């Protein structure tokens, strides 16, 4: 006897996602295409400098564009529906769907303006860099079993230290060198209280953030602003054009015309992705984050591993902090990380605690942020207050279970005590 | 190689967990340590393994005294342990688990799993273990997971192998296989320490038996000793675990479960389309190896689970979709699997715990005001009725022993007017005295005309209480049988072997 009442949680989720997609398509048709409004040309530019192949600009009428891409999204929706009927994952068709809705949106939002696609993506990457550093710091901590809410503080400390030292020495390399150490110092606080004294890690992280924000704001106001030339005018790294690679159309200007910090990030991402799953360090990190008592039973000093990894995480986030000062503006300003540490945490969760996932999520968040800036410059029908919310809305939607099965490291946030079973 | 413990003493605060324990095992020998839950067996072995340190006493291997501060020391001394709760990382592969802590690395610190894979396959073949080095541990049956632990000990060249309650999570068939494997290991010249509270197994496998009670060695016995003799040494008095039970006087149908299906939040089906009924005046035992969906069914009986389909009717009233309070009001008593986590609020007093379900009604509360004195008075009556050994009803529940905690839960649940009693693993981890009490009380409820739904993984308990036995395997009820079924047959069902499934109504 087959039970026809059987519910499948996954199927339910899938059908919910399909409903949301259908709603979006309707919105796309009505809001972007159907509603009265003059059709103006939208120009998409793909060229930023002297790439090898110059891709022609693409001009399309806003109405025709919105209609055709809404229609395309409807087509992908049908595909997704058929996939769901077969019980397959929606992955590719959902991605194609999102892209067409997005282009329909852009046709409407940027009517009468020119959008530099390359610039948009480049700016998105720029904003994503601290997020990637931050989420990797969170990744190393949480895979080891320590919740890291203090990413914000680590980034800020790195930014401050790099800015000040860079200014005093008038050497951006000196700033780059101390930034990780500043991040690690914040980690030392986190590790000491979270691991040694088993303080609640969420509360601890918040307290550390408040502490760092307070200290750096105080120093900024009392010292940096009094003699900015001496204290707060660090030289910055110039962009390095990678020969050949930077000339690839679209990709070159985005990825290979960056500062040293960004290139270091590429290397760090690659290293962490490989070592997490293929090295002794990664194996032990995951072991103490999943079932510390099992790690202990084979002779691993759980708290030592955790302590060390939290410090390493601080190095990574601190380096990311340097990007704010010596990597871009050269000067430190109060609370300049502006909540990016928390968005980085969201990226980590959205990325399912994997390095590549976290990077992808960080890129998405950075892109959403850049889109806001671009659209507020070109002028759109959307109120600017609403545009400011976009990255956060994307974050909330992303974290609230759209990504399917998410599984945190099993012992994330649980302090480990030897012989704790008694 | 021989292992010798002399005068090992370990205290936890005021509690003496191990009191001057002497113990020795030689190679080619299986030496069993027999004792009740809480007698101090696991503490002793955790000391040997380096997870705990003794307060006094010595450990020597081959006559040489050793200081064991961490598992690394015991591993180096050739002592391997198979833990009661497997020390394996669930999301790792077998090979990853085996190398953890002893990683060999190659070029640029790259993890070398190839050597481990070969070793695993070699040992797996030698002992016919059938373990795939690349399988993810959490996807393996527990019997195989245990073999992974044994393989790990062997790879690190353990000459003394300690097994802590190794059969607790196994099916009877898996237990037989384990016992055979241990005999093979004994032939290969290893010394084996087998810790258990199960008389049958100890008698079947051991060369020598040491009995521990309340942290002390109370004697040794040979495996030819009578079960009753071993039992009385273990408990400290004569025990008779048979519950006197008159024939069931069946009443009307109280619980009717139809096509119940339960999934977890990721969409995995945990319970698949099961149906059963329980009548007034009978005990239906749901037997099965742990983790086959019993816990989820038990929780669904009180509306505690999401993603539930099908129908659960108590006295004709549907409870799926109802709140827990509504379920309680229908007359369901519920004794959860974990009394510490779900049965009690440990930091509350015994009195408060006794009225968790009724505190919002008279005489404990009126117009939103709570009367602690009324609670205390009733609590004192309950403590007397259920023989709860406590200094005062205002002590916290956490101060009680396991048996007394369980009595508090029973006292609360059975003091309401109920029709259906749902109990899950009611005697897990209890001493024999408490087990007797719980069993007698459950039979009394049955004789009183209540429907009792018992979830148990202990065959002895199932046989002692059940009027009918339903066997769950992988989320399905594969048979409902009479308690006259033989242990062997029941064991086969629990291992998922479908015999001639005779379903009685």
UniProtKB/TrEMBL annotation, chain A:
Which compartment or compartments is the protein found in? Answer: Cell membrane
Task: Give the protein name, as stated in the record.
Answer: Unannotated protein
Question: How does the protein's chain sit in the membrane according to the entry?
Answer: Multi-pass membrane protein
Q: Where is the signal peptide?
A: none
Chief location bin: membrane
Q: Which GO terms describe its cellular component?
A: plasma membrane
Which keywords accompany this UniProt record?
Answer: Cell membrane, Membrane, Transmembrane, Transmembrane helix
Q: Which GO terms describe its molecular function?
A: transmembrane transporter activity
Instruction: Give any Pfam family that matches.
Output: BPD_transp_2
**Which regions span the lipid bilayer?**
20-37, 57-82, 94-115, 121-140, 147-168, 174-195, 202-224, 255-277, 310-332, 338-365, 386-403
UniProtKB/TrEMBL annotation, chain B:
Q: Does the keyword Oxidoreductase apply?
A: no
GO MF, one term, reads: ATP binding
Main location group: membrane
Q: Which UniProt keywords apply?
A: ATP-binding, Cell membrane, Membrane, Nucleotide-binding, Repeat, Translocase, Transport
Instruction: Report membrane topology.
Output: Peripheral membrane protein
Protein location:
Cell membrane
Q: Does the keyword Membrane apply?
A: yes
- What Gene Ontology terms describe where this protein resides (cellular component)? plasma membrane
ABC transporter domain: from which residue to which, for each copy? 3-239, 255-499
Q: What is this protein called?
A: Unannotated protein
UniProt organism field? freshwater metagenome
